[in-house]
């Protein structure tokens, strides 16, 4: 028949939804099920929507090239091979492409590293109208392994599901819930990890992170939501993930620097980024000189460990400033003294910087009788259009701290924008509601671009050279 679709005993096929555009498959009508070469097979995801991820060597004798894949699990069953061995395998479904024809096929996952064919097509995989010609080879158009070279493989790679950890002690907070909601909406597996319950194995060969008695799996990305009270331990956990090679949205160095307000201002000064005039001293004999370095009252006295506007006091007169400074010193607290930017009129600008660009901004206004505009202090927020100078300042500040995600707080001074703070764990609620933007979605856009599995090239690995 002219329209007859024939397959020989070996054919070039593709699994486009797995990012495998070219494979040589053995067509075996004696086998009932089909099999795909896979190794480092790892199930993940919730029990009601389990998934599996694995690596594939698509080219025989090329163990240095591995393609990361993931797919929903449809079953797990025992499969007996032609030599009589029985193996419990994960079963997935994907789209098979042969020539110009496509159809769904069920595949079992097993290590075929010693086989010449990375895929075996059993009789269940063939539509009824298909003709198998066991004495012929490559009845359909031949493909090439060249598609896996250079950047072309990225062009054919599908959107693979990721396994992402959110380090947070507040699973029910708005920010954490949004990260889970948006991530799962995109098909990813999002796991909320209590940072303080992590512990680490530190060695040069196999560093690990453990949690509640078990070693944590390999994550594609980590989103740190580290509270100020656990910064030292939280950054230690992130350093461990960095050592393993996991992509962390914010690195330990940037988080630690942003939390140390004195060091943070020194970083801003080093990069010549505008900020309110700031002074710091340890000796009580320097109180008047300290005030004089900053300027005249009113002044801001700020604890180094302050967050969400707590530990920040405005001294309206020099005498009041002296009293506040003496009180803080009596508590042996470390603090900064800053110039009060009057022209800001109780308002500041929060710029959310992701991946080197401002994705959203809002103006926060202090409530009546209050100079702090933090939303946690009862401030209000509205969307705002920022100037090019403000945008550039926010981007430079985030870059100075090497943060992939940063909330940069600016004051509109008479001589240009002044950075108040660079927040390495900015909340999402206020900025999403004020700007109307899906900020969590924008964050995942960046994570997917950075962390999606790409072809892995390794030295010293062999996919086998047998010809079975």
From TrEMBL:
Its cofactor is Mn(2+); Mg(2+). GO terms for molecular function: ATP binding; metal ion binding; ribosomal S6-glutamic acid ligase activity. One of its GO terms (biological process) is SOS response. The keyword Magnesium applies. The keyword Cell membrane does not apply. GO terms for cellular component: cytoplasm. Residues 265-448 form the ATP-grasp domain. In the C-terminal section; belongs to the RimK family. PANTHER family: RIBOSOMAL PROTEIN BS6--L-GLUTAMATE LIGASE, RIBOSOMAL PROTEIN S6 MODIFICATION PROTEIN. This is Probable alpha-L-glutamate ligase. It comes from Tranquillimonas rosea.
């Amino acid at each position: 028949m002219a329209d007859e679709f024939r397959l020989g005993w070996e054919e070039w096929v593709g699994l486009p939804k797995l990012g495998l555009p070219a494979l040589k498959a053995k067509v075996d009508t004696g086998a009932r099920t089909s099999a795909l070469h896979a190794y480092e097979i790892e199930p993940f995801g919730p029990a009601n929507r389990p998934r599996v991820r694995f690596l594939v060597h698509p080219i025989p004798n090329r163990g240095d090239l591995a393609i990361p894949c993931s797919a929903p699990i449809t079953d797990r069953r025992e499969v007996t091979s032609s030599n009589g061995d029985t193996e419990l395998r994960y079963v997935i479904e994907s789209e098979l492409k042969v020539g110009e024809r496509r159809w769904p096929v069920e595949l079992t996952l097993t290590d075929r590293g010693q086989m010449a064919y990375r895929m075996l097509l059993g009789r269940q995989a063939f539509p009824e109208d298909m003709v198998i010609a066991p004495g012929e080879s490559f009845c359909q158009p031949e493909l090439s392994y060249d598609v896996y070279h250079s950047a072309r493989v990225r062009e054919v790679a599908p959107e693979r599901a990721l396994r992402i950890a959110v380090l947070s002690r507040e699973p029910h907070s708005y920010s954490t819930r949004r990260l889970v909601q948006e991530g799962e909406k995109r098909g990813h597996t999002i796991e909320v990890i209590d940072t303080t319950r992590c512990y680490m194995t530190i060695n040069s060969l196999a560093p690990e992170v453990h949690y509640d008695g078990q070693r944590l799996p390999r994550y594609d990305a980590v989103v740190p939501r580290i509270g100020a009270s656990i910064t030292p331990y939280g950054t230690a956990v992130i350093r461990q993930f960095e050592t393993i090679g996991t992509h962390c949205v914010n690195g330990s160095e940037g988080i630690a620097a942003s939390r140390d307000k004195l060091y943070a201002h020194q970083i801003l000064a080093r990069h010549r980024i505008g900020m309110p005039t700031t002074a710091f001293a340890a000796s009580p004999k320097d109180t008047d000189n300290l005030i004089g370095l900053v300027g005249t009252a009113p002044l801001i006295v700020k604890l180094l460990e302050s967050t969400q506007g707590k530990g920040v006091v405005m001294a309206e007169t020099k005498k009041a400033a002296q009293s506040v400074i003496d009180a803080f010193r009596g508590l042996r607290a470390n603090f900064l003294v800053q110039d009060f930017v009057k022209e800001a009129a109780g308002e500041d600008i929060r710029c959310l910087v992701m991946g080197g660009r401002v994705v959203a901004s809002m103006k926060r206004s202090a409530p009546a009788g209050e100079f702090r505009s933090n939303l946690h202090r009862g401030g209000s927020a509205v969307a705002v259009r920022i100037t090019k100078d403000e945008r550039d300042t926010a981007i430079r500040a985030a870059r100075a701290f090497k943060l992939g995600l940063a909330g940069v707080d600016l004051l509109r001074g008479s001589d240009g924008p002044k950075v108040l703070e660079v927040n390495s764990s900015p909340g999402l609620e206020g900025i999403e509601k004020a700007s109307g933007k899906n900020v969590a979605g924008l964050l995942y856009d960046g994570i997917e671009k950075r962390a999606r599995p790409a072809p892995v090239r390794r030295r010293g690995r062999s996919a086998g050279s047998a010809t079975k």
